[in-house]
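retry 2 of 3: previous attempt timed out while embedding ribulose-5-phosphate. Reduced batch size to 1 and resubmitted. Inputs unchanged:
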Amino acid sequence: MSLYTTQDEKKKAAAKAALKHLPKGGILGVGTGSTVNFLIEMLPELQLEAAVSSSEATAERLRKLGIEVVDMNSVASLDAYVDGADEIDANLHMIKGGGAALTREKIVASIAKKFVCIVDDSKWVNQLGVGFALPVEVIPMARSAVARKIVSLGGDPVYREGVVTDNGNVILDVHNLNILNALELEKTINDIPGVVCNGIFAINKADIAVVATDNGIEERTAG
Ligand code: 5RP
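retry 2 succeeded.
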């Protein structure tokens, strides 16, 4: 028996529960995806000074609600960054990029004092990369070269057809990676020439995960 009847209800509940971890009247970094979309609708109550957005899609939603979206170059740091994840583990390491916004998400998260991750419990995993392919953003001319290097690491890259990122690049979704050391693999993949960014968020992991479970909201920290 669950408190929620749909996954969307869980996403909305996680978003609502995250509000108390976000600054009132400050500048907030805002991620991308269906969970964050629920949060964006609730943001007017925080009376933010402004937001830094991780995607064109999020920026449009924020502006529609009258929230000013500022260029990241005009901001030295953010009180908090809030975003969903495709997978998150007990270290609060994540896989992100299902929505192809991973690079800007990682950049915006990197200047935030804390990362608040909002998820339903289907995203909580024992090991990253088993149930979700790792997105890697790649400069188009390097697509095949990067794919070959990833095969040599044991991964199985699949070109995400028809997707161009906000930065004009393409996405390889890498299946069958054995992500036992997320920190190390994040750096190894970043070092491949032509890779712009990969969807492992371990160097900048979440500080708190607000997880909607069948029994209600759980706030989890790394342990
Ligand atoms: C986009 C992301 C999203 O945070 C991730 O895909 C989760 O999305 P959703 O909340 O729709 O499940 O990383 O690049």
